[in-house]
């Protein structure tokens, strides 16, 4: 019997393939109710996120964390449905061309998109019920108008400009967030470590696996719905 391949070992959930809890101790998300004025009381950093996070507090003592925008400072007042940089608003309240980040994928999910340091999206077309947004990948996508966003650009811009001079630095960067690195080519492995292993057969991508194969076997191309030429 061969040992488990990497995809099987990671799926098992052992401590070798699990993120440290300290890396994600702060969970930034919008609260269900955002009415009134909020004040930035602290700016914190965390290993699992690439941008600083701002701790917000209102007059009732309620707090939540949000990603900090460029130029945010302690003591700044944040309003809901405001128009200045750092305010939190709904998509249908914004003008075309407004830069946004920490966007909700669905209303009241707390924010799922555009959360990495230095990123921002842009409002392209606001029709009220639906809003077209230009994502950082330059793709245009439509969202419901009542999804909440933060106005401005997320802080941490320029983090990729400093070169990674040695492999040890990249090792610790990846280890912080438990990313698989370095990635070894499957055909360079031994036969017991991967279905593409050994020196025989250098065209592994032509392999078509069964649709309901186990995670250790699911490599190469996914099972197509049909094969062969269509009959006219």
Provide an overview of this structure:
By secondary structure, the protein is mostly beta strands. It contains two helices and ten strands. The protein has two domains: 73 residues, Irregular (Ribosomal protein L2, domain 3), CATH 4.10.950; 133 residues, SH3 type barrels (Roll). The strands form two sheets. It has a six-stranded antiparallel sheet, with no helix packed on it. The radius of gyration is 23 Å and the shape is globular.
What are its keywords?
232 residues; mainly beta; Ribosomal protein L2, domain 3; SH3 type barrels; 2 domains; 4-stranded antiparallel β-sheet; 10 strands
Low-confidence residue ranges: none
The geometry reads as: globular
User: How many structural domains in the coordinates?
Assistant: 2
CATH class of the largest domain: Mainly Beta
Tell me the β content: 15-25%
Largest sheet: 6 strands, antiparallel
Helix content: under 10%
The separation of the N and C termini measures 47 Å
- The class by helix and strand makeup works out as mainly beta
Kindly identify the CATH topology of the largest domain: SH3 type barrels
Number of helices: 2
> How are the strands ordered across the major sheet?
5-10-6-7-8-9
Mean pLDDT: 88
Report the CATH architecture of the largest domain: Roll
H/E order of the elements? Answer: HEEEEEEEEEEH
Q: Could you tell me the radius of gyration in angstroms?
A: 23 Å
Number of strands: 10
